[in-house]
Design brief:
79 residues, mainly beta, three-stranded antiparallel β-sheet, elongated
Length: 79
């Protein structure tokens, strides 16, 4: 699995001179240190997960994937 940092998070986007966090609509510009540190709300970009997304729960803030071996992996919610 990829490293967890803001650059691998589905809540972040690039801007002209850096990155912003879009979690809960905040659109906050991130320092380099913040980008490396990440946060508890990190969710991997689905394209980086070696599985197929099968569910998402906006209340629990989880994303569920079916992995190639048939197992299930949940991103978020303490996973």
């Amino acid at each position: 699995m990829p490293r967890r940092n803001c650059r691998t998070c589905l809540h972040s986007s690039t801007i002209e001179n850096g990155w912003i966090c879009e979690f809960d609509g905040q659109n906050r510009e991130l320092s380099r240190a913040e980008q490396k540190a990440g946060c508890p709300e990190h969710r991997l970009l689905p394209g980086l997960v070696p599985g197929t997304q099968v569910d998402a729960d906006p209340v629990e803030r989880t994303i569920t994937y079916e992995m190639a071996d048939g197992s299930e992996w949940v991103d978020g919610g303490g996973a």
